Here is the input.
Amino acid sequence: MFMWGWRGRGYIGPESANSGHIRLPSLFSMLDQSKGYLVSIMIKLLYATLLALMCSYASAAPQDAERFTHIAGFNLEELYSFDDLAGKFGKSKIDSSGDASNYEARVCYKASDGKAIIIFFHGEVDWGFTIRKPIKSDSQCPKSNALTPSKINVAGISLGMGKSEYIKLVGKPQSSNAEHIKHEFQYVHTLTDQELKEMREKSLKNGYKENSPEEWRKWDVIISLDATFEENHLTAITIYRVETN
Here is the structure.
């Protein structure tokens, strides 16, 4: 009995059934198995690619939004004072409005290249900042050489960036239209023992009554980003952080 067979790389013609070479039915079966394996690999690669694309546009975990609360060496969580800002950026006039829960105070600076205005503000429980393009009424904002373009880049957010790039960086917005995009992140900040100790000492120093330390263990945090766009490019961004117990 003879079978067509292969040896090495070349076709060699008829072979004995006992020669040990691959038979055609067996070869076709192996090819079919290989095709199935390749298809399986391709499907897995396609799924991994789609998953990566979905993740690239997915909203970040709420606590990850803390990266947007840092600017020019200051962190909104630290509740810095205007004196702290003046020590680094120079003195600036303090403007204030409202009272009690509606109170807000603010100072402004001009970036070193004159292409951006940075406004630092705080209310009763919120601290934040705005970065926007200059307007004519900004003459009272002193220029600070410490506020260089790289220093006011907030975790990749910078004036002039495209809307799609902004969404890819920050995540899916809670609300949006042609000119505005809003994100809000909420999470519970659980203090470590060291943080709890420092909080207790600071609260007592500021005149608060002695309470059970555990009452200060958990804090509700809200981080908001409000972005304004013109012709699909970022012209202003306001970021604020609220932490309440």
